[in-house]
Amino acid sequence: MAVQINPSILSADFARLAEEAKAVEGADWLHVDVMDNHFVPNLTLGVPVVESLSRATDIPLDLHLMIEDPDRWAPQYVEAGAGSVTFHAEAAAAPVRLAREIRAKGARAAMALKPGTPIEQYEDILPELDMVLIMTVEPGFGGQSFLDIMLPKVRRTRELIAKHGLDLWLQVDGGVSATTIERVAEAGADVFVAGSAVYGAVDPAAAVRTLRDQAGAAIAAAPWACDH
Length: 228
What we know:
228 residues, 34% helix
């Protein structure tokens, strides 16, 4: 089972995004949070910055759209250079249609769930997705503490993926650090968004490697990974 570490530029210096991207060379994806000050109470960046960032780095961009009306806006982020686009289940009017449109434009389609949104009600559309993102904090701000009460939800999501025999990545975002990543990997995640744990480190690239090693060891010992 391949572990992926996706540093979040929400914790980077926005005035030096090109250099901050270079600082995490070796990362699997660069996680980009798009917030509109409507779906979440914060405002970050939009299509022009994503276009510029995609030209400034060879690391593929993992877009997390914390916005209203992703059905309208998500395809534009694929065109801007995103390799993966995540929309929120709570915001999408037609998630199956949107996932298919994202895929048709050439990116991976992913769906995110807030902490209070059950995974079970979306079981039937999992085959339409390439990744599910379980938020382990309330979306909208970086630097929050990991919510341990989300671990059972991560486990249930992994069980649903196995139940349907899907090749589906399971991402977690929120409070992922050296002290939490092993627990969430053991619960079933294999893609990890890390913000301050990477960009707050003296050597961000080394922090990525350390997190990947920790998660890999935890997954290797996890019951859910034994058959993979």
